[in-house]
Amino acid sequence: MASAARPEEGAPLGPPPRLARALEETGAEGTGRTWLEDLPGLARDALRRWELTPERVQEPGGRSSLLVLVRGADGGRAALKLVAPGTDAAAQRAALAHWDGFGAVRLLEADDAAGALLLERLHGEVSLSSLPEAKALLETAGTVRRLWTEPGGGYPYPSVADRTARAAELLRTAAHEPSAADARPLAEQALAARAELTATEPERLLLHGRFREGKVLAGERTPWLAVGPDPLVGERAYDLALPVRDRLEDLVAAPGGAATARRRLGRLADSLEVDRDRLRGWTVFRAVADGLPALARGHRRGALLLEFAGWL
């Protein structure tokens, strides 16, 4: 990823364009706009509180947070993350503290009220997406396996059923849009799959929630570490749904993309001892739940996700 210019002392630490666009697309215009306006001050407050010196704002950055590369009072390198409204900073903090650097970026400091996390510095420009596909798939399985742990008592995470209830509601709404007429049978299939999958609960493990190749970055103390969790509790198949569709554009463009996608699903399921049918169901649901609303907003990726779901 390219990086922004180093800010001068006292200069505003404004959000990258990608973050501003993402908040607008998700409809968080009121609270999101206020947060964006307050963001430079929030960043400066955290820098002062933890005695940090900013180096640069990471660009293009994420879609729900600002990441500032910093140095501590001792000269050590770190990354300051400020999460947008609607993102549960307390749950992220709890999950990262629970993993304690095992398979995930290490948490150094946290302020739940400010939505601020101080994290170890990783190589943000190098993710599993930079590896050949076969190697990336192997490292994907090895990394996510480390994160699947017992959540402990009194955890603050929602269940898979709770998390997907809102997505199912949005999918039903999107399916009634005129532009979704051709996709309604697929939407009904996805909703039926979710209903069947949430009727049983085969396991309750701590999951990353948004795991994919781009969320696994190169580190120094260990080769690969996961970042950006949206933690929840449930079955492992839910967490594998996004890795199945990694490199989506390449899959859709390549001859035999459907067969390749099905083989990828089978390889991930077998390597991590996950039920293939449950993984297929969650992969279809998450692809359609992401794809149909995106299609309604005119995003090309929406059509790609629906085509991918149809293959499975």
UniProtKB/TrEMBL annotation:
One of its GO terms (molecular function) is phosphotransferase activity, alcohol group as acceptor. The keyword RNA-binding does not apply. The keyword Transferase applies. Pfam families: APH_6_hur. InterPro entries: Kinase-like_dom_sf, NH2Glyco/OHUrea_AB-resist_kin. One of its GO terms (biological process) is secondary metabolic process. Transmembrane segments: none annotated. Keywords: Kinase, Transferase. This is Kinase.
